[in-house]
Write a structure and sequence with these properties.
This protein is mostly helical. The chain contains 6 helices and 4 strands, in the order H-E-E-H-H-E-E-H-H-H. The chain is elongated, with a radius of gyration of 25 Å.
Length: about 150
């Protein structure tokens, strides 16, 4: 790599405020200070934006969605009237709400911790991690690989 390419690259990093050129006396070799990600303005903005999005999600879910019949229906609608684990069609009168993090392990009745499920999946999952139930359903051909990957990430 030529000296000019390196020099241009360093200058670009200085312009982007990722590297800071230290002020030295005339005739000394240039010194640079590399900033930590948390010191870079663009990264700080991204972190702040992510924190705000997380707060919005948490603020939305602090109500009890388990015991309120109207709020229970919001969960069913969010899941498009399908079981979260096996995608079986669900009806208003035959669905269960499942806690992703079980109440026995500290899970709450918040919207973000609840999914609509069929009786079979709700019973099979019990207090296990949701990923285990999803994997079993994928292996049992109840979910496609794409459906499994999508649900696993959520």
């Amino acid at each position: 790599m030529s000296h000019d390419v390196v020099k241009r690259g360093i200058n670009d990093l200085v312009i982007l405020n990722i590297v800071e050129k230290l002020v030295l006396k005339h005739g000394q070799i240039n010194e640079y200070e590399v900033k930590l990600p948390s010191e870079i303005r663009k990264v700080q903005e991204m972190i702040k934006r992510d924190e705000n999005e997380i707060e919005e999600i948490l603020d939305d879910s602090k109500e009890d969605f388990y015991t309120d019949p109207q709020k229970r229906m919001e969960i069913l609608k969010r899941e498009d009237y399908k079981c979260f684990y096996c995608l079986r069609e669900l009806q208003r009168d035959n669905f269960y709400l499942d806690h992703l993090l079980p109440r026995s392990k500290g899970g709450q009745n918040y919207k973000s911790n609840l999914v609509a499920s069929c009786r079979t999946c709700n019973t099979k999952k019990n207090t296990f991690e949701p990923s285990k139930s999803l994997l079993q359903n994928y292996r049992g051909s109840l979910l496609t690989q794409e459906e499994y990957q999508t649900k696993k990430v959520n």
